[in-house]
Amino acid sequence: MSQIYKLPLVLEPQPEGGYVVTCPLLPELITEGETVQDALQNANDALSAIVEALKDLKRPLPSILQAKKENTPFWIETVLAVCNTVKHRRNSNRLVAKNSRGVEQGHTAFGII
């Protein structure tokens, strides 16, 4: 079973492309990725390796790195990549967009239909 941990990440764009990911509160966490999505997935993998290594060494998790309690709400900020080539059309009172895979998604002022 996976645990959810909440911590800040810094994604620093690199001149040659891609991103380096660090965590100001957990200096052991450093990774990279070609895209934002890759960088975030690699950060997830790096955090998993850190947690596993600490457990193997029988060392406690840093106090900042405590698992979120199950079935409790939590606040996150995230990065979402939006494709600029999405095609939109009006369909009655909703906006219909085709995503990058050609799947239509309807949107209203209150979210995705």
The mean pLDDT is 80
SS-derived structural category: alpha+beta
The residue ranges in which pLDDT falls below 50 over 5 or more consecutive positions are 107-113
Span of the ends, CA to CA:
30 Å
Instruction: Give the topology string: H per helix, E per strand.
Output: EEEHEEEE
Strand order, main sheet: write it out. Answer: 4-5-6-7
Structure description:
- The chain has 113 residues and is an alpha+beta fold.
- It has two domains: 68 residues, Double Stranded RNA Binding Domain (2-Layer Sandwich); 32 residues, no CATH class.
- Helices cover 19% and strands 26% of the residues.
- The chain contains one helix and seven strands.
- Strands 4-5-6-7 form a four-stranded antiparallel β-sheet, with no helix packed on it.
- The protein is globular and about 45 Å long.
- It starts with 9 loop residues before the first strand and ends with a strand.
